[in-house]
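Retro notes, item 3 of 5
We never archived the inputs for the calcium ion complex last cycle. Fixing that now. Sequence and ligand:
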Amino acid sequence: MPRKLQDCIQEFITVFHSYSGKEGDKYKLSNAEMKKLLTGELSDFIADTKDPKAVKEIMTNLDTNQDGEVDFEEFMALIAALTIICSEFFVEGGLK
Ligand SMILES: [Ca+2]
Ligand SMILES: [Ca+2]
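Structure as it came back at the time:
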């Protein structure tokens, strides 16, 4: 049996850690790491990943515990939000 969702979950964790481990806290994304993740992984979804102000704003919105970094839980809030937006897009686009 293919377990696509399980693979996706593993993929979220792998992608997060491949960026969060580059500097500072291994389990949190710094501003620079977040920028790399956005430009490397989500530039099709988030148009202004190259704008430092926009990245800072995304960081601030995601950083709910306000420690200046984005941990996995905070990162998943972004993924959840983007997934919901995508799903609405597909529904509205009349995907059958
Ligand atoms: Ca880090
Ligand atoms: Ca945080």
